[in-house]
Amino acid sequence: MIGQEEMKAQVRDLWRLCFSADSEEFVDLYFRMRYTEQINSAVVEDGKVIAALQRIPYPMTFAGDVVPTAYISGACTHPDFRGKGVMRSLLAEAHRQMYREGVVLSTLIPAEESLRLYYDRSGYALCFQQDEKLLTGKCLFVDKYSSFLRFSEIDSDKFLSDEVWNFFYEQQRKRPCALLHTREDMQAVLADWIMSGGQVWAAFSVETPVGVAFCLGTGEDLQVRELLASDPQTENQLEVFFAEALWGRPPFAEISFRRKWGIPGGWLASFMSSLYLPYGHACIRSR
Does the N-terminal peptide bond of residue 68 adopt cis geometry, omega within 30 degrees of 0? Predict the structure, then answer.
């Protein structure tokens, strides 16, 4: 039996070994803002952590209700113990712990394509897709509505203020099948997003938030990873803003938009091209 601090230190070391591409800043952020003893599951052999994962709680909209789920994060096994069923046993135990806590739905995002089949064998199935669309000026309808909107890049403090946060959360709730970020969770999400060079933009009607977008990259590499708007007209004006103002180009430039959604769900908009990519898996446990 190892103590809490020793457990955390060993799980962190295992993370750094298995996910060597992650920056030290991200690892620091994760173990400061996400990791807790209560959500950690690990396999210990001879006083050493050889496999670990975290069960991050997320509410999810489903069939008009909100249900508890647990997102599997940081699943990793020491290279010397791979191929021996260690992670599969750990997942099974994590599922039993979730069930004891009243959580019957687990979600995860495979880190690479080869892991999809692996998680399928542990009861997971593809239930979330990433909708990637290429937006051009031909898809935009420009009107005078933009004169009533103010666009502003916002920091994490502004995003988490009551007015912006309440708008964001209500827009999340409208989705038919989606994981919901809590205010506490968004603190970690925003810290990671901004640390990675991401930007958050908001549209205001007078002082009322009517749209939020998460952007990554600049110039021709600009991607809008998430966009939430109060109505299609506001969504369109955010698209015009990114094409013209943020890029400094005419609205015939191309922008990549992405949105993650569950089944059923989708992003209703008029785009030039669309590609639906596998994204996240889910598993339901009855015991």
Answer: no
- Which two structure tokens, joined as six digits, stand for 51? 């496999």
CA distance 138 to 253: 9
**Bridge partners of 43?**
51
State the pTM of this model.
0.81
Residue with tokens 């908001």: 202
73 Cβ partners below 8 Å, 6+ apart?
34, 53, 54, 55, 56, 108
| pLDDT tens, per residue, the chain with 287 residues | 789 999 999 999 999 999 999 999 999 999 999 999 999 999 999 999 999 999 999 999 988 899 999 999 999 999 999 999 999 999 999 999 999 999 989 988 887 777 888 888 888 888 777 666 666 555 555 555 555 899 999 999 999 999 999 999 999 999 888 889 999 999 999 999 999 999 999 999 999 999 999 988 766 667 888 889 999 889 888 888 877 765 555 444 455 555 544 433 332 222 233 344 556 778 876 55
